[in-house]
Amino acid sequence: MVTLWISWGFSMVTKMKLLLLFVATVHCGTLLPLDTKYSVTYSLNANRTEIEFSVEVETRGWVGLGFSSNGGMVRSDIVIGGVRGSGEVYFDDYHGPADMNGAPILDSKKDYKLISGTENATHTVLVFSRLIDTCDPDDMQITDAGLRLIWAYGETDEIGYHGDRKSVKSVYLLDPDVPSVDLSGLETHDIVSTIRMPSRKTTYWCSLHRLPKFEEQRQMIAYEPIFLSPTALNYTHHMNILKCFNLSDNYYNSSHWVGHEGVDCNENEAENGFPGATCVFLEYGWALGGELAVNPPDVGFPFKSEQFYKLEVHLNNPNNVEGEEVQVGFRIYHTHEIQKITGSLLMVSAPTNFQLMVPPNSMEFTTVAHCMPQCLNKHVIPPEGVTAYNAFLHAHTSARKMRIRHFRGNSELPWIINDENYDFNYQTNRRLPKPVTILPGDQITAECVYDTNWKGGKSVIGGQSTDDEMCMVFIAYYPEIPNFVGCYDWMNKFNMYKILGVETVDNPTGKDPVVTSPAWLQGMNFSTVVSNFNWTEEARREYQWQQQFGEHVTACLPQINAVTGYYPMVERYVEERGCPKGGMGIVGGVG
């Protein structure tokens, strides 16, 4: 059973204190502000076919709770109820209108079962249940994909406009609980950076850190984000800790950088001699919405004495505030009681440059990044395979859907994880519904779907700003594959050039290179060429096919040995539904 407290109205300092408490105790809470006006408790039955909700609200009026793909009322799935002064309970099943205007509409088929309704001098409590999949086209199917929980309430029992008594939060209702662990019995170590914020929208800040000398072997059991300055959460988009290799006190002048404030990852790392290029093994990650991450029982991550780490923090500063101190990082929970199994992370990522390009005014454009069978071969993956237990999906503001596909031989296996309603503001480590075995020769594909209509006719390319895009996934697994990071994958750029009429660019690996030929495009940035291009339906289809199914190049990291391959042309996996034909509820799909 899980309780969600949903709200808005404390000071930032109080929010942060409550936030950290919430992160440490409840697995499916979010990083939204908290209050005590509205709470939801939910639980699944034993075979995970039915879900029960208990809604408690500080009001004697009506109470509404709903499910939405994007946080809006349009085509949402809603229940509204309450208790009148006479003690009579009212409760009904609704759905949102087809457009922005209009009140909720009563369902013709009633799929929510009222269990009880009570009211005291201050609060109303409604308890009700529904099937995970009601097979009602007016209801939203609850899947392992994310959805937005929308809520509102009134001051009286006359159902009407809610005013500002409403909000929304993203949830994964079917995700398993985080394993129970007593953090009080573990030791902690904080890796924190103090940053004076530069006056620009996007900054990646890197600092070097070193673990203390341990007298005995240690392992990481859990970790969480910590925000030590009052506005740190406002500006921190995501952060990573990367393990460094071949560093010592004197090599790369490493000891000079430990305790140093750090450098801009992009502008000054190489220029100043910062040894960040040696730090490529992702150990811990967090993004907006992220929570406490806990390993499964008997699994620990290496936490070695005097190990060097790079802390990389992405600051998002849309108002170009300058000089404000941001103190942010991670708290690592570790132990000397060594676990039986050593875990690690596998990354699959598209490039963060022009080779991840989404045309302007695209509604559902799909990009993919592969970890080819040549990378996951028998010399990398042990014969019995590795077990994936957790996944983290990361993209930016144009992303709408993400999933991790899994191929073996001539078939596609069930998706490792799926999010039909990706929320840029709620990115969290997600426990897989059940462990997944990855065998030698398997292929793992990250799939991202974007909508660029909000860009006003401009294209979107890969990059570090939240207005640019990414498509990357991280899979937690065991046992550890030594010295293996994952895959970095991109479509054959010459196929992209051909569609756009581009021949050469000045920096083929740059974020947004300048076209050098042909003459009529010379001097234009690649993104400008894309935005000005005449995107006919034929051109869109051709580029979509090349991006999704055409030739790709994969670098198996960290060795950087590139291989070529394609999206497997096999029958695509389709989630099974228990509904009769024509009776399916509202559910999206990546295709």
* DSSP strand tally: 37
Task: Give the DSSP E fraction (strand runs of 2 or more residues).
Answer: 35-45%
Q: What is the average per-residue confidence, as pLDDT, rounded to a whole number?
A: 86
SSE class = mainly beta
The portion of residues assigned to helices is under 10%
Q: What fold name goes in the CATH topology slot of the largest domain? A: Jelly Rolls
Distance from first to last alpha carbon: 33 Å
- The geometry reads as globular
CATH class term of the largest domain: Mainly Beta
Strand order of the largest sheet: 29-26-32-23-33-36-37
Question: What's the CATH architecture name of the largest domain?
Answer: Sandwich
Low-confidence stretches: 1-34, 582-591
Question: What number of domains?
Answer: 3
The description of the largest β-sheet is:
7 strands, mixed
Number of helices: 6
- Taking all Cα atoms into account, the compactness measure Rg is 25 Å
Structure description:
The chain is built from six helices and 37 strands. The model is unreliable at 1-34 and 582-591 (pLDDT under 50). The chain has 591 residues and is mainly β. The two termini are 33 Å apart. A hairpin with a 5-residue loop joins strand 2 and strand 3 (50-57). The chain has a seven-stranded mixed sheet with strand order 29-26-32-23-33-36-37. A six-stranded antiparallel sheet has the order 7-6-5-4-10-11, with no helix packed on it. Strands 12, 14, 18, 19, 21 and 22 form a six-stranded mixed sheet that branches. It has three domains: 2-171, Immunoglobulin-like; 183-342, Jelly Rolls (Sandwich), CATH 2.60.120; 345-565, Jelly Rolls (Sandwich), CATH 2.60.120.230.
